[in-house]
Amino acid sequence: MKIIVTSGKRKTATARAVIRPGVGRVRINKVPVEIHQPELARMKILEPLIIAKDLAKKVDIDVTAWGGGFMAQAEAARTAIARALLEFSGDEELRKAFLEYDRMLLVNDVRRKLPKIQGGRGARARRQTSYR
User: Fold this and answer.
1) Exposed site from 26, 83, 90, 116, fewest CB < 10 Å?
2) Separation of alpha carbons 55 and 37, rounded Å
3) What is the pTM of this model?
4) How many other C-beta atoms lie within 10 A of the C-beta of residue 105?
5) 3-class secondary structure, 27
6) What local confidence, expressed as pLDDT, does residue 117 receive?
């Protein structure tokens, strides 16, 4: 039996996907993806499964996501799922389809939040000066 483990990251969220032959079940943190909330995050997670078409119906995917917010977890999960499907199938056409749709399906998003700097309320905002 072929079992593959992959991971994806976005901001401070990390997701680990375990893929194995099955009947098309997808679970995010032990919750079926069909009832995963909010709906926008569910749509993000389903994108690689829609692109993979009938391959998604032949495998079971269990995703564990932690850290970050719900949207960062969803984007980390979609990266992990896309990588798992690609590694499971080994199909170059699927790789091209993923890259053509969105490069972030296969590549982690390396952008991070700037640290807060002294002299203001955040990374860029500064306290005003009056000059008079």
Assistant:
1) 90
2) 24
3) 0.88
4) 23
5) strand
6) 92
